[in-house]
Amino acid sequence: MTEVLAIKERASALAPCNKKGPGVGAALCGALLDYKTEKFALTRNRRMGLLYRLLQLAVLGYVLGWVFVVRRGYQDTDAAPHVSVVTKLKGVSVSRAEDARRRLWDAADFSRPPQGENVLFLVTNFIVTDKQVQGTCPESPSVLDGICVEDVDCPMGNPVVHGNGIKTGKCVMFNSTHSTCEIFGWCPVENDTLPRKPLLAEAENFTLFIKNTVNFTKFNFSKGNTLQTNDPTYFKTCMYDPFFSPSCPVFRIRDMVEAAGETFGALALLGGSISVRIEWDCDLDQPAAHCQPRYSFILLDRRYNFRTASYYWDSQQQHYRSLLKLYGIRFDISVHGQAGKFGIIPAAVSFGTGIAFLGTATMICDLVLLYLDAKADFYWKEKFEEVRMGCGTTWES
Known about the structure:
purinergic nucleotide receptor activity; ligand-gated ion channel
């Protein structure tokens, strides 16, 4: 009776291999419904245990320290705020030209373009060519294409390269030592004698008012860089200081230049360009008072100038102009920022990523045990086990 039962059990075990049709489908259905679990091998290896814990601590430090604390990975962010910038420059200076004439410069004179833009040019030095009128005159000897020896060097109708007009075909004396091509243009030609010192040196004490507002539309949050106060004299008396007065948006020009790593006197002579960068990094899980801007100043260029002219007619209806070559400091104001607020989706993603990273500790330790350890063959045999089943099939776990 026992032998009969054993034969029946062996026959039933081999049935899926010997039967056709429905037997194969039943076997496949059974395979789909099987539940497979991993086999764990407990390894008494202190070195691997220490490595495993160190890797886990490193992953936890990265996830908790960097992802959650530093990068605030649990927050939803808005990195494209709508910004508004308004500037206003104030100050008065007096310049004295070579002819001893004095001229008063105020905000309407030394700021270009008109106030209110996020790009501002402050005049610190200038060269004046007064009473120019259209006519013929010798080209400046400082222009290489204007130097000549005879008329053939000045072909009529050709513009002077980097010059001030059109050649008339004549070579004339500019002074006792230089002969240049005669041109048709604004005469006399531009004066190129640069003062030895900046004519508007007092501009270092001018003040620049920068009003900036950011709006993070994703969170319906707006904030400005000006202190909310009922004192009408506050903005007339305060001066920005990163430690003592960080909420005052009034900046002294000298302080801005020095913060960019340059001295005002050196930059004022030939001009330059400074980037004013305003950065907002707002954690909206904190009170709104903690959302404050940070200012940085970067020197972009040590030379900057351009030309402008004012036109007028005299009593004889003769058309004149006064040409100004202006040197000064260009301020480029840019605003950048981001705001973050707790969100369930980014928090879940960051937490899930951290859990996934913990699996790398196991993977690394397995690779070390199976391929680098002195007893790698032993660990390999203990980790993987061959199970032989019916029909000559071998399964390896």
